Amino acid sequence: MSRTTRLLTLLEMLRSRRVPVTAYELALELGVSERTLYRDIATLIDQGAPIHGEAGIGYVLKPGLFLPPLMLSEDEIDAVVLGLRYVDQRGDDVLRKAAAQALAKIDAVLNASGKDAMRAPTVSSGPPVQEFPVNAVPLTSLRAAIRGQCKLRIAYLDAQGEPSNRVVWPVVLGFLDNVRILGAWCEKRHDFRSFRTDRIAAADETGERYPGVRSVLISRYRTHLAKSTRW
């Protein structure tokens, strides 16, 4: 985490609390030393954040820190809420937590009418989704490989339970109503394929980074999806 990101995270942590929080608790949550935490608090105070602290009690963000209101139309707010609620229903634990944090951050900087629109949207993401199949390979590992453009050697079971071993270039994760899929270029098939994540028995990085620009590969994968829905 960069220092800028850490400072913004610390500010959000203080904003979300209504009672003082100790330096030890803040440092533990941020994964830094208390000495680093004290320096970060001092930096925020120097930049104008109204942080009040007392020995033995902790820190609290006092009223007075005003951020520019985020101006979104009601339709834009509906779109944001619908998208994040969809993530809350269909995403994994990491994405659900991120969606909740994103909603809280947006709500914190909306004007009064925007807050009302967010808390009473005109759209709904539908009924809760049933349990997803269990993944042998954590989605966090697949996301890390995607971000690093790492080739993966996967052990895969098809719909008939037949095993195969593939070397794939993971480009994107798809979250459907009842399954998650890994969109990837398959070296065995010399084409894009969609692999259900619950059928990936194992996935190991080969140590190679696949070539190309991932945004271009995603575009090509979407073109493939428009022609085929095999997974």
Automatic annotation (TrEMBL):
Helix-turn-helix type domain boundaries: 6-59
Molecular function terms from GO: DNA binding
Domain WYL, first and last residues per copy: 139-203
Keywords from the UniProt entry: DNA-binding
Family matches, as SUPFAM superfamilies: Winged helix' DNA-binding domain (SSF46785)
InterPro entries: CBASS_pafABC_assoc_protein (IPR051534), HTH_11 (IPR013196), WH-like_DNA-bd_sf (IPR036388), WH_DNA-bd_sf (IPR036390), WYL_dom (IPR026881)
Pfam family, one: HTH_11
Record's protein name: DNA-binding protein
